[in-house]
# Entry
Amino acid sequence: MLANGIKLGYKETAEAVEFTDLTGLKEVPELGSDPEKVDNTDLAADVKQYEMGIGDAGDMEYKFKYVNTANSSYRKLRAAADSKKVYPFQQTMPDGTKYQFDAQVNVKVGGGGVNAAIEFTASMALQSKITVVDPTE
# Structure
């Protein structure tokens, strides 16, 4: 499956019914977590024994095409960053799989160069687990 067609949406409030898709999405992060390996070896063991601890989703950074118009993704996400509120987000894959999570967002405009497009990055500070909603078909 190609990445083309992936969408990222957000809701203004947790009570809102629909996610609003953000336009200009260019790149998405890996989703999931790397659980910490916790040593839980007792004194009778011949080898170390481990349990999987809590996970770390790492840096969740979404890259967007930079457009600064009244209804642009840049303005919406910048407003979300300025508010420091936690928002519900949903990444939808081309096959219909949805990844839902709550996060605070930070926005940073990228640098530029000769013949290079300007982008902005929305970094997510995860505030919930990532819930996977599988397609119905």
